Amino acid sequence: MVLASNIETPEEVKTALGHGAEGIGLYRTEFLYLNRSQPPNEEEHYQNYRAVARQMLPYPVIIRTIDVGGDKLVQLGVSDIDEESNPFLGLRGIRLCLRYPDLFKVQLRAILRASVEGKLKIMYPMITSLEEVRQANQMLTEVKRELTAKNISFDNHLEIGVMIETPSAAMIADLLAAEVDFLSLGTNDLIQYTLAVDRVNENVASCTIPCISAFCV
Q1: Whole-angstrom distance, CA of residue 6 vs CA of residue 114
Q2: What confidence score (pLDDT) does residue 73 get?
Q3: Whether the predicted model's global pTM rises above the 0.85 cut
């Protein structure tokens, strides 16, 4: 068994290592987008990912691509996103990345560039179908070609994974597994979507107890 940590910033790596972590199981990258009027550029992404990759060697780091939307409202530098009445079921995670490929590719390029500095892996959030994974992987392939054309090094064997956090993803997990290298169970959203219970609403928090018990069996 391996003990891995979840982090949001490079500064948290020291704490993770101090508590015995042998890897980063989830590097949330949303902090890069918070409290600013424009999204981070490729160099900002790269410097953060490189810092974490270097500090965690020889252990692996799983970077989750941007998962904004829902309870994470940020400025993305795009003008056609209207406020959503039910953002948890709206444009978030991989849906947003596929709608705005330029935004997505900036992050993918930075991760690939930083992959030569450590043991990085990429994980796509909010997957609901095979087509989403295939589209995301196609964009990743395009970015690899761009970097190769510019003679920029990257780990061509970098592993790709997906979050299983929607009922539809859980139902086709075997098919998704054939498209990627690993799966990660996201219980917070999976419970929320399975039970139709808002995970941040204290009035219905008790409704999650039966499902949490089932996961622990």
Answers
A1: 19
A2: 54
A3: yes
